[in-house]
């Protein structure tokens, strides 16, 4: 059993705990694993993220208040898009992100590596990382995967692909994962079947991530992970990024903290991260309604006795480690392996 929150100290108050959380996040900002902002912005006739945008959960002022240093911008698409339509819509999403970042140079910077992400944070910018994209974005083509990576893609969600189903990865699916390792694209396993998770952990030489997964032992949801998969993810030094959504974690800050406690206990402190999942259409817990609210969550974790070391891994360090390791793995893999020309019909036909 995971221990519950510590009893409140008579020497502390909510305001002092929040001030302590703010001070901590100045030094150790949040690397947020998922934002649905691109699709929301696509629907707006005009917006200004630098001044503040009331029609979204995530603008520059709120990211600064929430101490967000890096943010993965999802390229996911509405259900039903496949084939050339999915590829084209993903490219349009990617182009939109570049346009938005270019229009907000004082607040945002597009980054492609752990080092660039840290540099952006040190310059007072929010580092924008491209992805995850959905598996339909590559159209069963490794060439399209490489082209998207050249344009900046950092993560691809395997769930929903014909080659990553309930029975696990097909032969082509395994080749997709190897090619992702070779070029430095992270495999996102949120929503994937248990067999796909297990096989990807066996095949991948780079860390995998679950950009929107909490603990199934605490709350049943298709994207939440049972303890055996959390333990396997920890052994593989992957990363489970717990979403701040009422559906997956519960209606309160305490519920989210319970999931973070549980994932840390099962997978380890080096394998747990944060995923705001703002602007995704999901409902959020009370007091975690937009991107400015991270200090409230960190204050709750401090109240529970999380060490500064574990908190620093949670907010920033674990994402940096995964990005660095993926880049190192890719450099080594390119020395051993040529670009794959495999086709799905050849391997799975």
From TrEMBL:
Record-linked Pfam families: Peptidase_M19
PROSITE patterns: RENAL_DIPEPTIDASE_2 (PS51365)
Superkingdom, taxonomy of origin: Bacteria
PANTHER family assigned: DIPEPTIDASE, MICROSOMAL DIPEPTIDASE
The protein's name: Dipeptidase
